[in-house]
Design goal:
The chain folds into two domains: about 20-45 and about 270-365, Alpha-Beta Complex (Aspartate Aminotransferase, domain 1), CATH 3.90.1150.10; about 45-270, 3-Layer(aba) Sandwich (Aspartate Aminotransferase, domain 2), CATH 3.40.640.10. Helix content is about 35%, strand content about 15%. It has 13 helices and 13 strands. It is globular. The N and C termini lie far apart (about 65 Å). The protein binds pyridoxal-5'-phosphate. Pyridoxal-5'-phosphate binds near residues 91, 117, 191 and 221.
Length: about 375
């Protein structure tokens, strides 16, 4: 018989994790909302993706294709990859979690970086392994700090490249140097959620390295530049042996049919992706100097968001700025949980949202 004083107890490491606090999405009544808190696409989803999703709504009684064949073929065609080496997930979050589930457990260690995407640490801890944090340098992943923390218990390393919430990237020479120095039994997971936004000659998302080694996986998402965050679609590109392993723990119908249809159309709509990248690049070049001119510090970004650091004068801090901007309908993201207590992350939004946010920031700094 169940006792009134005993209940199921989770592992202590799970209880010690911070609860994920999502980006806010409400403005005061009567104020126009500009949600710049979750790195969603300023241009939304392509019309082709929306039409494909609507069409899929007519057949909701059918199970989806558990192998995601059409989507894997479309991704393969777009990037020149063998679809056999692609595995789709319910968001790239699921891909990242499935890798931890398959490769980590009690007595092992997984490495994440100082300002990492919070899911990296959560996935390590949920697997039962120990999470080891590698410090970053100037809000940039530090390959030597990662290598210094590798032990005989290390089995997996997560790196977001570019990083979130930093917006910075690691040149691919550095990633190659990391892979070359890692023991062969350590899986290097390159989370490239923002790869499509990057315009740098020394950046690569990781496709070549996956193809030429046995211990590298790249993950990608449809949530950012493709504008399909609501539908939850991500994918990984991995060597045969990793795909075979992850297939054993993947839920058989992890993506729904509406999501599969929309993503298959989205990846083929290259013009829409190009428009989103151009919109972003133009605003990145504009916003960074404009915000800097207000007396704020912006971490140089290659993504669809900027990390804004506020003064320590007790009057113009991130908490005060957040309240000021929220009251005017501009919802940015507090990033204390990522190790930046006095910064806000601003997603690059529509023209009107970006102009309005800069004007509100100027008003705030002039107070
Ligand atoms: C947004 C984001 C993802 C994408 O997550 P989904 O589950 O695909 O929506 C993955 N990694 C990083 C670093 C991100 O910022």
């Amino acid at each position: 018989m169940a006792s009134a004083t005993v209940r199921p107890a989770p592992r202590q490491a799970v209880l010690d994790l911070d609860l994920y606090v999502p980006g806010k999405s409400h403005a005061p009544p009567g104020v126009t909302l500009h949600k710049l808190s979750s790195n969603e696409s300023a241009l939304g989803a392509s019309a082709a993706a929306q039409a494909a999703a609507a069409e899929a709504l007519a057949r909701l009684e059918l199970y989806p294709d558990g192998q995601a064949k059409a989507l894997r073929a479309a991704i393969g065609a777009r990037y020149g990859l063998n679809p056999a080496n692609i595995l789709c997930g319910n968001g790239s979050d699921e891909c990242l979690s499935l890798l931890a589930l398959a490769y980590l457990g009690e007595g092992m260690e997984g490495i994440h970086t100082e300002h990492a995407f919070l899911l990296h640490k959560a996935a390590i801890v949920a697997s039962g392994a120990k999470a080891v944090m590698a410090p970053e340098r100037d809000a940039r992943v530090d390959v030597d700090a990662i290598l210094a923390r590798v032990t005989e218990r290390t089995r997996l390393v997560y790196i977001a490249n570019p990083g979130n919430p930093t917006g910075t990237y690691v040149p691919f020479d550095e990633i190659r140097r990391l892979q070359a120095a890692l023991p062969g039994n350590v899986l290097l997971v390159l989370d490239a959620a923002y790869a499509e936004y990057v315009r740098r000659n020394d950046y690569e998302a990781g496709i070549e390295l996956v193809a030429s080694s046995d211990n590298v996986v790249m993950t990608r998402t449809f949530s950012k530049i493709h504008g399909l965050a609501s539908l939850r679609v991500g994918w990984m590109y991995a060597p045969d042996h990793v795909i075979e392993t992850v297939e054993r723990v993947r839920p058989p119908f992890n993506l729904n049919a509406v999501a599969l249809a929309a993503a298959t159309a989205a990846v083929a709509d290259r013009a829409h992706v190009d428009r989103a990248a151009e919109h972003n690049l133009a605003w990145l070049d504009t916003l960074t100097p404009e915000i800097t001119a207000l007396g704020l510090t912006v971490t140089p970004s290659v993504t669809n968001f900027v990390l804004i650091h506020f003064p320590e004068d007790g009057r113009h801090g991130a908490a005060e700025a957040d309240a000021f901007l929220t009251a005017r309908g501009f919802i940015l993201r507090r990033v204390s949980a990522y190790g930046f207590p006095n910064a806000l992350r601003m997603t690059i939004g529509s023209d009107a949202a970006n102009r309005g946010a800069v004007a509100a920031l100027a008003e705030f700094m002039a107070r």
